[in-house]
Structure formats: structure tokens, C-alpha cells
Amino acid sequence: MTATTARRQQEDRVALSDARMTTAAIALLVEVGIAGTTLAAVGERAGYSRGLPTYRFGSKAGMLAHIHDTVAADWIARVQAAVGSRIGVEALEQVVDALCGFMAEAPDDLRAMYLLRYGSIDPASEYRANVAKVHNAQRRDAQHWIEAGQAAARISSRVDAGLAAELFCATADGLLYRWLVTPQLPLDKLNRLLRREVRRSLTLARTRAKAPPKMPPAEKHPA
């Protein structure tokens, strides 16, 4: 066995153990919450020693940050694949579709990620910076698509792209939060409504921007 082969096998083992521990941590977060998701419990659930998660992640905060970042990376990859080269309203509509798809296909992953996101507002949270980093990345992507739509004259230049992107991301977060609390929400109807409102608001702004200015009434001259 060559050194290169041995190194690759070791890398494969590390990747496998990371994946199994991530899956175990997500399951525990959904079942028992942040408090019950200990390093030892994750190791046992994944089929390894109790000490391996500590060795790999360093601390519980490090493990929670890893779980959040792993699920967030999957979500961002799904969005990028769905959006492709689209810009403007079409790109945002694809984000809405990708979100609803993720909710249907990986509900436990989303539950775990948002449990960690909302837990990060605790003053004692040690992974808040990880959450903020992902939030900023999501807002930058949305702002880029809106600005590209403006450059292509598909969205009005009067729209504040940064604020519109922030509102779009906040709306998506709010929808997820309400779904987590009430899984019976009619996601298909909400999906269609959100897509329609995104198009209506940005297209309406464009239409208003193109409306011709009103002419002042003609002056009346005495006969």
C-alpha cells in the first residue's frame, strides 16, 4: 500500500465518521433538543466511541457549528442548482421552490438547522457567528439576483435591492418558523402565494417607474 493510498483511505474514514456523526447529531437534535445532544450521545448514536466527537469537534459548540454549517451548505447548494443562470424575479421564484422542496425532502435537517439558528440568539451561544455568516451569504445572493434584474431592466431601479433582499430572506425564515411550529400548513398554497407576491411587488415597482409623468392641467385664458 502506497502512502497516497493510505492517506486516501484515512480521509475516506474521516469523511464517513463525520457523516455518521452529523446524521446522529441531527436525529438527536430533533428528538431531544440542544441540551440533550451531547458529544457522548452523538458518538454512541453514530456507533463510535464517546470520545470521538470531542476529538473531532473539540467542544459541543464546535459540533453544533459543524452541524449548522453542513446543513446550510446543503441548502445553499440546492438553491444555486435551482437558480442556475436565472436573475431577477425568476431567480427568487426558484429559491421559493427550492425551499419548499427542502422542507419536503429533508425536514429533519431543516428542523435541526433552525433549532440551532434560533438557539444562537442565546447570549451564551458560541456559534452565533456561523449563523450570521450564512445569513449574510443568503442576503448577498438575493441582492445579487435583484440587482442583476435591475441591470437587465426587469426590476425597477427604484427598488432598494439590499432591503428587498433582506425582506425576502426574512419572509422565507418566517415561513420556515411557522411550518416548524405547525407542520400542517398548506405549503403548496403558500408557495404559490409567495411566488405571486414576489413577482407582484417587484413587477409593480417596475411598472410604476415606467408610468409617464402626469401633465399639469392646461391653463384657461379669458375670452
Question: Which tags fit this structure?
Answer:
223 residues, mainly alpha, Arc Repressor Mutant, subunit A, Tetracycline Repressor, domain 2, 2 domains, 9 helices, elongated
Please provide a written account of the structure.
The chain has 223 residues and is an all-alpha fold. It has two domains: 12-58, Arc Repressor Mutant, subunit A; 64-204, Tetracycline Repressor, domain 2 (Orthogonal Bundle). It is built from nine helices and no strands. The radius of gyration is 24 Å and the shape is elongated.
Per-chain topology:
Layout: H1 3-36, H2 39-46, H3 52-57, H4 60-83, H5 88-105, H6 107-119, H7 128-151, H8 161-181, H9 187-210
What is the structure about, briefly put?
This protein is an all-alpha fold and 223 residues long. It has helices at 3-36, 39-46, 52-57, 60-83, 88-105, 107-119, 128-151, 161-181, 187-210. Helices cover 77% and strands 0% of the residues.
